[in-house]
């Protein structure tokens, strides 16, 4: 087993090096010049420009900049943001819990609704429930979520006034950050209504971010379930006269879960992409919005560090899913 | 789309017709797929006949009609059925012309990704060894980034615009095709018929394209439809973030981005482009489901 | 000391609790500040969160005007030759007592000298207190070469020696980069080896002090209990960072914030209709323009430029792009600025006459590029849309327009090039209310290849501007600027498009808010009714 894990890890090394090259390389060829942006409409003299380029280290040969970048990376230093002048890593870590909180809630919602819906649809194949739920799932799967988010804001925040418009918690509440997760911090603060406010702020973004994973999980569960239900041993179990519920609940579900767990794990990439749009629409102070803002203000080190961290997280989650899969299903360990 | 299966192998005419009939039988079993097919056909017709159907030119500015609501709402008129945008352009006409862009984006992106992915996958699968290792690690690198994020940075590098957005999206979608092709090649490479034709002196290239490829066409077609709808969604998202097609192009995502400031004042400029995206993507996904059911032998039997 | 300050705070809370809830004003701001040290930055968003609530300057702009009034300096004298400015500092001014700093002395000349020396002197340890920092405003206002030396006369007297007389100098000192920082605090940070905290944990003399900043989300301030200009009516000031204007408005309507800047022009009607909201408005100190490249034929011919100006339907731009929230511009400076020339006659919108003029100039089959900025600015809500309208207008007189755009940084750079192809849409917001800040920066010969996007060098015009800059008497200067505006109109290096109106929607409960003509947002003295 340890060899299996080590093998997997070793396998990731070249990929990770590739990721650093991409993160560094892309950002270095981004058009637009941070120095010029700093100057704005008023412009800048050529001498001053040279001076600033030198200060920021952009006058060095690219390979040299890359090596320096790698060197600092291994010391956990992702450089400093050009805009805020604070370390990129600490900015990332400050904003990261907001994204994690949102993503966890979304995946939880997607799983809690998606799996039962998929199972039920498979069991009652062809019924109206199957048709309606799978139809809805396909609509969810086809949804441009940035538009979906706008519609929900117009309806629930604008017309009905049920949910807050944006942000993570009402400004009336102010307490120190302990975990960075608003749901937990608001409970720890002991302030009346803080938790409720945090929940209310989470509802719409969670729904929007969960839409696509929910559809994918429901569809995947249904087809995995159908496949298992068609297997001989399930048929045998039925023929033996075991209660249907027991067959579905114990034998079929357990086997059907293997591909579903993988699917859930693989949604992490989808969630990160979704977070970019969701956070932008809801002004959610997380990684997705930060990345978009950084791209627009040409904050090279922030884009670079962000790309790297996001890719590393996706890789790590995929690795964990892989390992879990190997645990559940020992047959594939030898691959 | 219905003509694609006869690319597979080169069976005698009778079998080909039979296969086609079988395919259509399974496909038409799926009611959703048939609806999706008809909607898609309708969309293609709309796109082709846009100049005939659109009541106004898509970029014609009516200076006397800024932000006119749809005809059924107070203040609207049948002159502009779905209303006008901020500089007096007819929304219906822009939506009609916009269908051209979405279908164009889907086709171009899928073509690039498909061709690129197949070539890369064939090379990797057929040559194996370090070629395979390097290629597949590069694919891993691309897949390690969330697709939209990578596309966003790519477009920032290349410069905002429709062409660059399509290139970026094709690039991030392409590894899926490469992986599929490679897997199929690996599976088929040592089959008897391949070895046989190799012994018979068939060239490597010929072998790859004439013998192996047709046998992995089915999953590629399914992946292709999936990517088609993904491409439309991603292009719209990039447009929405201001990195896709640039105004005044009547691309739906870009229209949404331009309309965002009006969400409180003029719901119609926000609602209709999004609806158009949803309907298009939904139709193609419905069709994709049907194709998968009809082409995937594993599901056929149940 | 931290414990002590917390104790004080809780005592204050108890006192407030006895009477009423702590009064909190929530401002839905449009973006995150880049940092809390105003000197290295140029963005108004950063200044709104740093220099304006937290700091003071030697002199200040009077609320609601661009008049320069005493700030941390009680009074000043200018020498006959205009080379020496001597400031008497206000006694008894204290810096903030925060969780991270407790002052032991009052503000003195040392603090003033420190605040300028760190920007002026590259050898000063604070010149580069974080990597890559630079003082763009200080540099672009040419303060480095203007100030010869700054001397401490006594603890409360400081003297600036200049290398040349400069009429706008006082107004420059009221700008955000000239905020006065605490030298004592800086020394403490230096000793503790955490100099970069100056940008994260500010200490100033202003009406509010920073409590906490949650990145990209919320900034919290509390009122400065020892403020030299009196106690603030509110206890807490909160900036809720909300980048989308429609979302800001929704939050305002939902009561999640009390006041917001930059509403979308499209929403102005809805705001007016909402009875729980008050809408303040003011002509902005700005101008949006289309600058021809006057060095490239046929645009080197004033006749051609004027013809194109006449073909432009500015009112349609006001209606469609500004949604009526602006006025057409005839001069390069806004009407609220002193020396604005009322006599200027704008070229009337007349496509027929424009077509004829082009023919007379011997120009046929003209095709040109119009550059549209990729970003929204206070003076131009949507350059793309403006360009599309201009495209249609010019097409009506047979001029074919291609719209081009670049990434913002690139746009700024490329549009400065002397051989630029096409006319460029751009604008300007005043920094200090001085006409030289518009006419000198944007149109004088010195700006060619830089901020002078028309690449227009007219000796007569430039002479007038230079003469005015070295003149002390305002009436005299105004006359010179009026003459310059007449030349500008005759030569038409720009099509002056619009002066936008600046709006400030707020809850009816907000009292005492005064809009700044410079577009900055101040909350000193603002109250909120229960």
Automatic annotation (TrEMBL), chain A:
* Subcellular locations according to the entry: Cell membrane
Q: How does it sit in the membrane?
A: Multi-pass membrane protein
Keyword tags: Cell membrane, Membrane, Transmembrane, Transmembrane helix, Transport
Q: What is its main location?
A: membrane
Transmembrane ranges, per UniProt, are 9-30, 95-123, 144-175, 195-217, 264-287, 307-328
Check the record and name the Gene3D superfamilies matching this protein: MetI-like
* GO cellular-component term (any): plasma membrane
State a single Gene Ontology molecular function.
dipeptide transmembrane transporter activity
- InterPro entries for this protein: BPD_transp_1_N, MetI-like, MetI-like_sf
Please report the name of this protein according to its UniProt entry.
ABC transporter permease subunit
Which lineage is the organism of this entry classified under, starting from the top rank?
Bacteria, Pseudomonadati, Pseudomonadota, Alphaproteobacteria, Rhodobacterales
UniProtKB/TrEMBL annotation, chain B:
Which Gene3D superfamilies does the protein's record reference?
MetI-like
Mind telling me which PANTHER family this protein's record contains?
Answer: D,D-DIPEPTIDE TRANSPORT SYSTEM PERMEASE PROTEIN DDPC-RELATED, OLIGOPEPTIDE TRANSPORT SYSTEM PERMEASE PROTEIN APPC
Q: List UniProt keywords, sorted A-Z.
A: Cell membrane, Membrane, Peptide transport, Protein transport, Transmembrane, Transmembrane helix, Transport
Q: Where in the cell is it found?
A: Cell membrane
Q: Which family does it belong to?
A: Belongs to the binding-protein-dependent transport system permease family.
User: Which molecular-function annotation in GO is an example for this chain?
Assistant: dipeptide transmembrane transporter activity
Q: Which GO terms describe its biological process?
A: protein transport
As for membrane topology, the entry says:
Multi-pass membrane protein
According to UniProt, the name of this protein is ABC transporter permease subunit
Q: Which organism is it from?
A: Rubellimicrobium roseum
